[in-house]
Write a structure and sequence with these properties.
- The chain has about 130 residues and is mainly α.
- The protein folds into two domains: about 1-75; about 80-130, no CATH class.
- About 80% of the residues lie in helices and about 0% in strands.
- It is built from six helices and no strands.
- The protein has helices at about 1-15, 20-40, 50, 60-80, 80-100, 115-130.
- The longest helix is centred in the N-terminal third of the chain and has 23 residues, at about 20-40.
- It is flat and about 45 Å long.
- The mean pLDDT is about 90.
Length: about 130
């Protein structure tokens, strides 16, 4: 439910701070502070060796999130929250099928079946219906 609330609140934030990019920056700063407080409260700290062993692409997940938040702040007020989220979910599912098929980024390989493709097509059809 928070994902649905995030798009319009970040759109409101974008109007106040002058752009979707600024809204994403503020959103990530607030989120980072919240996560830092939780990590501090839990006493968790990553090990330096584990951090050094990570592949380069493990560090860019936050970039994807920042792009999503900025796009949501821009697009949700123009498209409507429901349609924006339907399109976003459909895109995520299409990419998920590909990632599963390839076993990318360390996830187990899962073959693309006709039922899985049909399920994604139903979501795409739902996005089309929401737009109508």
């Amino acid at each position: 439910m928070f994902i649905a609330i995030q798009a319009p609140t970040n759109a409101l934030l974008a109007r106040g701070v002058g752009s979707p990019v600024n809204a994403a920056l503020v959103s990530f700063l607030v989120g980072s502070l919240a996560l830092a407080a939780v990590a501090f409260a839990l006493g968790t700290r990553p090990g330096a060796g584990a951090i050094r062993a990570l592949p380069w692409y493990a560090w860019i997940g936050g970039f994807y999130g920042a792009v999503f938040v900025a796009v949501a702040a821009f697009a949700a007020p123009r498209m409507g929250v429901t349609y924006f989220l339907m399109v976003a979910i459909a895109g995520q599912l299409v990419m998920a099928l590909l990632l599963d098929r390839l076993g990318a980024f360390g996830v187990p390989r899962v073959e693309v079946s006709s039922m899985r493709v049909l399920g994604v097509l139903f979501v795409l059809a739902g996005a089309f219906l929401v737009r109508r």
